[in-house]
Amino acid sequence: MYETVVSALQKQAMLNDLPGITADCAKRVTAKDRKQIEAAGEAGTGSFFSTHPSDDKRIKAAKKHKAEGLFQLEVPARNLFKNFDAVCTGVSADFYRNQLGVMVDPSKLLRVEEVESALGSHA
Q1: 38-61 pLDDT, tens per residue?
Q2: pTM as predicted
Q3: How far apart, in Å, do the first and last CA atoms of the chain sit?
Q4: How far apart are CA 88 and CA 20, in angstroms?
Q5: % of the chain beyond a pLDDT of 70
Q6: Nearest to 107 by CA among 78, 86, 77, 84
Q7: Segment 17-25 long-range contacts (CB within 8 Å, at least 24 positions apart)
């Protein structure tokens, strides 16, 4: 999957489901790598310009006060939206605009399957 994303970007093809691609990649993370990622997140201290405490500080404060979460739901995000695919396309277009400075018409974004087919890849 990673190779497909990189190849698409190199060919200036914009994908329509970056959240789905991220979820797919997350499934492939090994237990060892997941621990390293979590440790890096726990070490986060924020910066001088941070407007909120780090996740680690928030979690510690919640535990200290024995505060339970106000909202807990263990279902896929797809179940929370009527048209989840359109939401993913919008988020992807926003990412390209806000992070890469590329204005893109959401209707021009490509499905991963289209890119894989064009590249002759099944990553």
Answers
A1: 887 666 666 667 777 877 788 888
A2: 0.67
A3: 5
A4: 8
A5: 88
A6: 86
A7: 17/85, 17/88, 17/89, 17/92, 17/111, 17/112, 18/88, 18/91, 18/92, 18/95, 19/77, 19/88, 19/91, 19/92, 20/88, 20/112, 21/112, 25/1
